[in-house]
Amino acid sequence: MSRLQLKTLSTFGTSATLLVAAAVLASMVLPGVSAAAAQKRIRPLSHDEIAQTWIGISEDEIYIYRLNLSADGTGRGAYVFSDGAAKLFKIASWSYDSKQIVMVASPGDADERGIKSLDGTIVGVAMELSARGDGWSRKVHFRPERELQARWDKVRTADSSPAQ
Predict the structure, then answer these.
(1) CA 31, CA 131: separation in Å to the nearest integer?
(2) CA-to-CA separations, 107 to 55, 67, 99, in angstroms, rounded
């Protein structure tokens, strides 16, 4: 081997050693970082913070939902498929603890196969529910209506301002 080849091999060996050392160090440090991140918990919402209006969209983005949860543990809701007519339902009861929310619903008169229950989790201000009826189930992602409305208003205002 020439001196250049030996020098290149030697340099690569040092780089490779540093790379392996960095990988080993990262494998030892990163689990601690992720464990620390897992220990930092988002404060669960209070019952009163859950009792508000929520807007949702189904996982397949075909259905739009609106839930109005009252502080007394009841509520009402509506959903619409694509460009069809909105269907109403009542929430006879809802309960929430920091791990899950459960709702008992009754479909409106004209919606025999409508929503009978909703349940899922709330993390931060994101509510992930399974809506269920007779023989069907659908995942729905919800956010507080007032937060979405505030953000929508900002975007609409920015978009309607004259171009600069």
Answers:
(1) 36
(2) 18, 13, 26
Give the tens place of pLDDT for each residue, 94-115. Answer: 999 988 999 999 988 777 788 9
C-alpha 73/C-alpha 47 separation (Å) is: 9
Residue 143, both tokens: 């956010």
Interacting residues of 105 by C-beta distance below 8 A, sequence separation 6+: 77, 89, 90, 91, 92, 114, 115, 116, 117, 118
β-strand partners of 136: 133
- Whether 122 contacts 133, CB under 8 Å: no
Give the pair of three-digit tokens for residue 124: 């931060």
Q: What are phi and psi of 49, to 5 degrees?
A: -75, -25
